[in-house]
Design brief:
Blueprint (H helix, E strand, L loop, with lengths): L1 H25 L7 H9 L11 H10 L7 H19 L4 H7 L6 H16 L3 E2 L5 E2 L14 H19 L3 H17 L1 H58 L1
Antiparallel strand pairs: 1-2
Amino acid sequence: RCWREMTLRSSALVAVLCACAAHGAETDYSKLKIVTLKRMLFVRGIECTHCTTKAEWASHMQLHSELPEREELAAEWVAQKEYAKKAKELSMTRDEFLKQMNETDGVRAERLWAAFQEQLRDGHVDFLENGSVRFSMPLTHRIAPFVHPALVEAIETVAGAAQRSYRRLPRQWRQQVEALLDWAVESGALHAAVVVLLTVILLDVLLARRSQRRDDQLDERAEQILRQLKAGRAGGGGGATARGAGI
């Protein structure tokens, strides 16, 4: 019986030691490569914006090792790696890009090239099956020839700052915002909001024009009255002079 109890205790002790050894092996993140640590954190939904060294990445992974991996994030990691490969293989010079976009040198062309480069770097260019790419044009690209350059520059500065601020948000926040926008588009709420906004703007413009027309009419009426008063005074003054001469 004693031998049996000792055997059971020994087996339990061995199991505990094996578990501790396995746990220790799993948590020895300092032996892993940085890219592996980045993936392990990514699939757990964790970002480390301040991590610059391997020790920092390993320490951050140690803090979040209990979190489970998420399948959708694992798929997103693979998609990002495929995107990075396609972006690296995309060999297109500035001149080739502008030629395909039917653009010549100038501020408008430089803004277009800069927008493409920024979106390509940030992972916002779509690689289509036919070999072409799709990206978002600058906000003022179509209207730039008809708007004052200072106004175009101001619009692009504000829009660029807003986009950069949005990209600095945590990935989870961006996903929530994008999910909300998708819902707004699918449900028609976004279109309804745009219609309401355009209606309000149109009414405001019409009311402003009506008010301006009324003001113009009042100004014109006031000028007519003023001219009549001046004409009356001029006529009255002339009559008095004539009577004085007759006397």
